[in-house]
Amino acid sequence: MMENPKAVVLLSGGLDSATVLAIAMDQGFEAHALTFRYGQRHWAEIEAARAVACAASAAEHRIVDIGPEAFKGSALTGDGDVPKGRSQAEMDAGAPVTYVPARNTIFLAYALGWAEVMGALDIFIGVNALDYSGYPDCRPEFLAAFQKMANLATKTAAEDGRKTTIHAPLIDLTKGRIIKRGLELGVDYGLTLSCYDPGPGAAPCGECDACRLRSGGFEEAGSTDPAIS
User: Fold this and answer.
1) Domains, the chain, ordered by start
2) Region for residue 222 given its phi and psi (left: phi exceeds 0; alpha: psi -120 to 50; beta: otherwise)
3) How much is the average pLDDT of 127-148?
4) What DSSP element (H or E) covers 188?
5) pTM for the model
6) Contact indicator for 18, 11 with CB cutoff of 8 Å
7) 170-197: per-residue pLDDT in tens?
8) In the Cβ-directed half-sphere of 207, how many Cα atoms lie within 13 Å?
9) Rounded Cα gap, residues 108 and 114, in angstroms
10) Taking the CB of residue 155, how many other CB atoms lie within 10 A of it?
């Protein structure tokens, strides 16, 4: 009996990454979830990631610590205020103060190393080019460049001819379509945390970019967000 191929799935604890984990498993992959503690202001997302991985019955969930000094300069790591109440036009205007320098590059590089160690050729990431709030490391061009680099940098590709694929199944979906797909796959969005500035008990603020995109997504999907209902 053939074993399911292994895949590394980047899991932040948010709506998108929870959906991607479900998609990877639905496609028949043995999902090894990977979450990072990198000095983010609100560690509730780590607990959300743990809950999501457990509910999905991921094969493994690894939580990795990266020194917070690598990610200074972002409102998500304590440098400045999280913007609230921005319009879609403002969100589309450029990288906001919540941009974390080189975050996806570093996360994908770690995922690539782990994948090569375990013999996996597939990495899943929940980036989105439509509702991406101006983050440059969520674009298709970035993912294509990283995949090309990955297949120049690893022994698996250079000597064995086995190519790594970076999967971004949400890349061209609206938030509403992402939510609909997740609901079809049984994702419990009540376990997820998207907010950039949650209050006591990880209650979402409702006004940051992530909250506004999430709210619009559930409205588009014709569904109620279980995290706030």
Assistant:
1) 6-221 (3.40.50.620)
2) left
3) 84
4) none
5) 0.89
6) yes
7) 999 999 999 999 999 999 999 999 988 8
8) 7
9) 10
10) 9
Q: Can you tell me the mean pLDDT for 70-94?
A: 55
As a residue count, the chain comes to 229
pLDDT number for residue 99? 62
Q: Identify whether the C-beta of residue 62 lies closer than 8 Å to the C-beta of residue 37.
A: no
Instruction: Report how far residue 206's alpha carbon sits from residue 214's, in angstroms, rounded to the nearest whole number.
Output: 9
Q: Quick one: which of 13, 14, 11, 58 has its CA closest to 32?
A: 58
Distance CA 95, CA 142 (A): 15
Neighbours of 114 (CB within 10 A): 18
Confidence of residue 103 (pLDDT cuts 50, 70, 90): confident
The single residue listed with the structure tokens 């969005």 is 189
Question: Average of pLDDT values for 202-225?
Answer: 92
15-19, 77-81, 162-166: which range is least confident on average? 77-81
Which position has the token pair 């603020």? Answer: 205
> Contact, 218 vs 225, CB < 8 A?
yes
What is the Cα–Cα distance from 175 to 116, expressed in whole angstroms?
Answer: 32
